Amino acid sequence: MHLTSEEEKIFNGELGWAYQVSMRILVTLGELFGASELIPIESAHISGVSYKTLGDAPIDFFEALVKADGKVQVPSTVNPSSFDPEYLAKRLPEDHVKKQLHVIDLYESMGVKATLTCTPYYLRQPRPGCHLAWSESSAVIYANSVLGSWTNREGGPSALAAALIGKTPNYGVHKTENREANVLVKVKSPLRNETDFGALGIHLGKLLKNEVPLFEGLPNYTKDDLKQMGAGLASSGMTSMFHYQEASGREKLETISVEAKDIQDTIETLSTSSESPDLVFIGCPHCSLREIQSVVQALKGKKVKRGIELWICTSSHVKKTAEKHVNTIKGAGAYVLCDTCAIVTWIKKLGIDTIMTNSAKTAYYTPTLNEVDVTLASTTECIEEACK
Ligand code: F3S
């Protein structure tokens, strides 16, 4: 990999340990994946914030970076943490809360903005065609496919290293040739709602691995539907982008057809419970303003019943812009939580054994990451269950 003389100096430690170790991470990755150089990035988004998923091991590393005066060189944001300050923080063990706040503090000391959301694009939308180093798979696939920005699927450490250097190695989908579709997906099923889109993503992710699909026949979709589909694709597979608009050369592509039965089977397989849930969870990935509006619509004239919790998870940024809706949701007995989600908090410690969700990504991960049962259903069905 070619390094400029400035990059060589950083590599050799002339600017200090924090930048040296970051540069070494980037060069090692670049050489592994055949990059020829480092390219500037417009922003970084770093996963690995929740103390539940992180544990103690990386904290020493973050402390060492802070001690060595490491500061990010580009606007940098972080994924959700393990609780929100208003509701869950009070229900979790004090030492967990302390450790989590320490992790957030360390990121902030490096100049990272504590956005604590997996939808950083609602806060600051990256420009089409610009290079990024993002490490939340649902945000990566959304950025590449819907926003037209260019980012590999980074891990937490490589996104942090890229943030500290302000550059990333030019491999993977940073290269035009790797962004071309190599499989055609014909969707022959009507998709009724965001949950069907998410299930389509989970079904295809398993078949595609890391191929780039071009969709034909995607019925009426919103950006929120594409967000759910992308989150599903990136959960069960390694795909980091898809195409859904016209493209030439499709006749040469291998074709996969998706039928209504594939969607239904996926929803049934993901649903491990038909019991009444302890928690109904909407907001994976974090809700957009529009999704919050549809929750308000579905909640009209209803109250959340006793013995069940209804969480709507979003970013603090969207929560602020949706103040009126947030008050309506609270009035119905539900919680609008920011900075966290049901996957990255200690669900079991909160006394929850069964979740119902509209998110195929949550349904895919929750039985293993949270060890609780799950039912996958549309937003409307979720709200009905919470209130019936
Ligand atoms: Fe976001 Fe949590 Fe889902 S981090 S993508 S809401 S698992």
Notes on the protein architecture:
By secondary structure, the protein is α/β, with parallel strands linked by helices. 41% of the residues lie in helices and 16% in strands. It has 15 helices and 14 strands. It has helices at 5-11, 17-32, 51-54, 59-67, 94-109, 137-147, 156-165, 194-208, 223-236, 260-270, 289-299, 316-321, 323-331, 360-369, 379-387; strands at residues 38-40, 43-46, 76-78, 131-134, 150-153, 167-169, 183-187, 213-216, 254-258, 279-287, 309-314, 335-338, 354-357, 373-376. The strands form four sheets. It has a five-stranded parallel beta sheet, sandwiched between helices. Strands 3-2-4-5 form a four-stranded parallel beta sheet, sandwiched between helices. The chain has a three-stranded parallel beta sheet with strand order 8-7-9. Strand 10, helix 11 (289-299) and strand 11 form a beta-alpha-beta unit. Helix 4 (59-67) runs parallel beside helix 5, helix 8 crosses helix 10 (260-270) and helix 11 (289-299) packs across helix 15 (379-387). The N and C termini lie far apart (61 Å). The mean pLDDT is 96. The chain binds FE3-S4 cluster (F3S). Residues 79-80, 118, 138, 231, 284-286, 313, 341, 343-344, 361 line the site of FE3-S4 cluster.
